[in-house]
Model the fold of this input.
Amino acid sequence: MPTKKKKKANINKIQNMYKVKKEDKNNETKKVRLITGNTTGLIRRRLSAFIFIQILSIVHNPVKAIKEVLRIRRLRASVHGNQKILKFVKSEGKYFWSVDYPGLPSENLRKIIKNEFYRNYRTSRKSSSLIPLQTIIWGITNRCMLRCKHCYEWNNIDQQDKLTISQLKEILLKIKQQGIRHIQFSGGEPLIRFNDLIELIRNASSDKIDCWLLTSGFGLTENKAMALKEAGLKGVNISLDHWNKEAHNLFRNNPESYDWVAKSIKNCKNAGIMVSVSLCATCEFVSMENLMQYGALAGKLGAHFIRILEARQVGRFAEQKVLLGKNQIETITKFTLQMNTDPGFKKIPIVTFFGYHQRKLGCLGAGNRYMYIDPNGDFHACPFCRVATGNALSDSFDEGIKNLQNKGCQKFSTIKIYDRITQ
Done:
């Protein structure tokens, strides 16, 4: 028979084991993981059910709800074929497939799904709480320590910020009043304005807005990553413009840039922040070999997403011949689809190529699903279509969005997504 001391020791041992397990569980919820394999099938079915429930709550008719879900599937098939999503990113108990959408399940995703339904459902019925934009890209500083070759904000870069923190808070209040549930903080380099950035993220996330950061990673230390996470940051888009260290540093005009990217990815992952690496695809870079090398590096560094942007004639590229050709677009498209749908590349991060979707569905910017607010507070179609249609401080958001919609995108048509689906 065990003595009382032994019993107490055993109890303490069990309690200690429980404490360790509890700590492990907390660490596990903090981790961000790329999900592949059979689990993705369950997540896809869960997403379909989630969409169905939201639509059913509006139409109150199971048959109509099923038809609408099938319409959504036909839309996806028209873009991606019948290929299935083979990757998700799990963060804070939610599943993400894009840096531009809230995770599953969440109230923000619920609102976006209902919002899309009200936008496109062929009926006179509309919701009084219709949200005008899915996400907003917002430059909060004119300052940047880098001199990147492609800088789209080049004409606004300055040593001093044009807007005070009070003015930024005023803009944030207007964003909240619009019901927008997703913000991407940009610059200049937003980390230069770190204390103000933290304050804005904390303010926005307190209202359950999903916050992302667009950055070069310069100065994103472990302590700053933890502070960003504590403030409520969901994810970070870190610019990485080549798989070759020297080539990336040359593009960014800074010999430390690549090292900061690698360090910032590690620091964000340790803090439990989702990581996307953002590539500005130039004519010189685009080849299948370079893209494959880039994908392998992104996976090795621990990124969860890859975001590919086309070089555009704006900012420092304004007077240069940088537009990609047909063959280069096809190369990026092939890479994107292969990385996302071929089981042989399951360890490569989820790839998003906006040009692919824009050519299939039309531009989602220009007040269609998103717009850009520059560091001076001016409304633009996107960071690369620079024609101001108002100011976030002096003008109403409704008028700014309406003006953007009337002007449209300078590169692609802006059409309603559901117009792509036949009845």
About this structure: The first helix runs from residue 4 to 30. The chain is about 45% helix and 15% strand.
